[in-house]
Amino acid sequence: MRSLRPSYVLWITLWLQILGPASWTFGQETDDSQLQEYSQRQIICKSANIEDQWELAQCAIENEHTEEAISICRQILQQDITHAEAYSALITLTSDTALKSDSRAFREARRILPQNFIELESRRFIVLSDANMVWTRQQSERLERAYHQFQRFARRLDLRPLPLRHKLVCVLFAQREDYLEFSGKFDNVTDPWIAGYYSPHHDRTVFYDVRSRPSVTDARSQLSEMNEEIEQLSRDLRQAERSGQQQRAEHIRQNLARYQKHVASESQRVDEFENNTIIATTIHETVHQLMFHTGVQNRQVQYPLWICEGLATSFETDKPQEAFGPSRDYAPRREIFQEYLLQDDMLDLNQLVTITKLHGCSERTVRKIYHQSYALVSWMNRFRKEELRTFIMMMRALPPGKVSRDRHLEIFEDAFGSTEKLQKSWLRYEASLMPGSSAGNIIRQRYTLIDSAPHDVPLIGVTSTPAGLIGLLMQSANSD
Question: What is the reported pTM?
């Protein structure tokens, strides 16, 4: 055994004896005095200072008491996430350990879900689903991709996420109505327009197959009617050709070609809407789950929405097979953000960084919160990386409970400096992404810094995708 402080040797030795193989035969070969000593050792460990706890963890590691070492390292990091040795040891100890499927989150979900829900396990997730297996497997793959890209971001900022304690739980519903019943009854989520959510209290994500969304089924119904009209035109064309009505046949042929092209285009847009909605929502909510489960965000602290939703929205993608995250732009979010910017319809940064709940906000304000937060976090990840890390770590270290508006503003400015200067620098950069635009020139003039703050280099190669989807889908997407 390593050399320890004399006052520590006695109870370290006792701890090792108690944690020997015989200690797991409580009730058989272990007497009451040994049980009492074991309980006392647990109390001493919890009350010891961090230095003593780390010595205890090292002894557990040297004597191959892996579970105890992991437990003590987690305990140390709950008190001081900057403890480099404990973090390194925890990562090493858990790196080759398969995650267990069983957890309180899994047992609770299994208990309240119907028996027909199947279980599909991947390396880090367990999915409970009554949807078809193809979509269920696709969702499982997206969850794993979210984990990989989350870890890439966390390493880049040195955020020190804690290892997963167990496989994370995801629930999938084939039908929207079943999803709405479940979300309202068990998670108190009553927003009918969202396609999924993360429940911090139960540590699970829940989604439904958007093909059962009313706007999608209505669009599919209209496409079906259009295809019937195409069939009728095809029959008319054949009849005109058989009867020798060449002029009429040519007229029908031209109309048929235009109609087929239109229906194919609209069908593709519906497919893209289905696919992009569920992919972006799945990644978004899984990032929430990973942020809180790994301790990057503290579940016991009240966060401002800009950092929670800014981080989650900045991971959204429609191409999960490629790299994604705050360093990659997501065109649907950026396009809407730029619309607000061009209209000069923005929340002031002083206001944005102190909002902690959406209750009472108009739908337009909610949209602005999400899209401004997306743009702000993406910009910070590029140009204020160290300050962003500082802010995340400061919030992580706060004591449990609510945080006042003034305190939120104080923490923000402690990490990033003046909100006024930061807002000018950020929006000047955003205006630079619209070169040649008269509105962009006006914005650049409006937010030109009076002092000599560094100029942020515009992002090169912003992702671009076709704007807009079927009108029916977009009009009803927020009212389903």
Answer: 0.80
